[in-house]
Amino acid sequence: MRKIILFSTLLLAGLILSQFLGPLFGGAEEQVRKVVQLCTMTALAFIMIHVGLEFDIDKRNLRKYGWDYAVAATAAAFPWVFCVLYFVFVLLPSNVWGDVHVWKESLLASRFASPTSAGVLFSMLAAAGLASTWVFKKARILAIFDDLDTVLLMIPLKMAMVGMKWQLGVIVLLMGVMLGFAYIFLHRFRWPSRWYHVLAYSALMVAIIEVVYRASKQIDPAVPVHIEVLLPAFVLGCVLRTKHHDHSQHSEHKQSSTTSAVTSDAIPGPGVSTGVPDEDASEARAGTVISAVFMLLVGLSMPSVAAASGTSAAANPATSTLIAGALREFTPQMGWGTIAFHVVVVTILSNLGKMFPAFCYRKEATFRERIAVSLAMWPRGEVGAGVLVVSLSYGIGGPIVIIAMLCLALNLVLTGVFIVLIKRLLGFEPPKTA
């Protein structure tokens, strides 16, 4: 419980500080935000590599993962659809409902509601002591597929904004290659995997992604090749092999029970003990510290409300001329009381859209566990903030983007409450193991 309170406090502190970066740093705000972004991605890569280390699949039962992806896709699509419909049919006047630019911009701006924050979720559930539960294992799969689906769907959304570009095809190709690589070489490479090795891998990965991004920006500043660190970090964790995998495999040979589709009991996540006292103490401390720093950085990554309202030059000059700015033009001006009301409604709608998993997995889990795994999909974070940054870079702004941004902030603040609710749900009856 203390870790949840600590992480929630750091999230809130980061959110508050993010709105004062402009006044504090003046003309250096953009550079400071860039440093924050790189540090956030490094910490996220650290967490996702550990998630990959814990990830295993039964290649004889791939159909199961097809169903998991379908469930995750609905958990990503329903919040998105609900927000789009609310933004267009409630917040915009009826005379622009047929405007194609309104729909394109609303589809992009509403995508913030889709991705579950994998890094925040895993850190919080582990801090709550739920790392060995069915809920954690299922939420891990769904959150990864959820974020993957969000990244994939950003491709056609960007195409709608800037047209067909070869860079977007490159991103799709790279994603396919990485997923295939993870499947073929699952836990094959025996590279060092202590926390400082993983942190070094994370920093190197972020540096490579940044170099590719900057190089492609020189070719076409409107559509650079930007690869989200979440997928390559997860893939790296998937292909690494540690002694814990050997131990797990040996245990499986000794047991006659059927191998489960996803196992993680023998492999440590960030801040989760493995049973070797000295190493575990060091790994747990490092994982906790990096997860705590990640929470602060996620809060700091939130864009400025002033930028969303149009009071600052948020749009990228290279892309702002490519769209019409329909939302900024057609959305009626609102007072803060009205905005607060819409924030609450949109937050409720977006979280209701995440509840579809509660109607699935009836043969695997109890009703309380299914509700808990749906609640586990509620936390939003770095990927959603990234969607809003993309929206701002295309010149989208006005009250709708402010509402989206504040909804994301509210979900971040409530993450600790969500985790407490999950823990109480699971406390009523022992959760099943995967």
Briefly summarize what is shown:
This protein is mainly alpha-helical.
How would you characterize this protein structure?
The protein has helices spanning 2-18, 21-25, 29-54, 62-89, 100-109, 118-127, 134-162, 166-184, 195-219, 230-239, 243-254, 277-300, 305-309, 326-330, 336-352, 367-375, 382-393, 399-413, 415-427. With 434 residues, it is mostly helical. It has one domain: Na+/H+ antiporter like fold.
Overview features:
single chain; 434 residues; mainly alpha; Na+/H+ antiporter like fold; 19 helices; globular
Number of helices: 19
How many distinct folded domains? 1
Average pLDDT taken over every residue: 79
Q: Strand count, sense and closure of the main sheet?
A: none
Distance between the termini: 24 Å
Shape: globular
Q: What is the number of strand segments?
A: 0
In the predicted model, the low-confidence regions spanning at least 5 consecutive residues are 255-269, 271-275, 311-324
CATH topology: Na+/H+ antiporter like fold
The CATH class designation is Mainly Alpha
Describe how the helices and strands are arranged.
Elements: H1 2-18, H2 21-25, H3 29-54, H4 62-89, H5 100-109, H6 118-127, H7 134-162, H8 166-184, H9 195-219, H10 230-239, H11 243-254, H12 277-300, H13 305-309, H14 326-330, H15 336-352, H16 367-375, H17 382-393, H18 399-413, H19 415-427
Helix pairs in contact: 1-12, 1-19, 3-6, 3-9, 3-10, 3-12, 4-5, 4-7, 4-15, 5-7, 6-7, 6-12, 7-8, 7-16, 8-10, 15-18, 16-19, 17-18
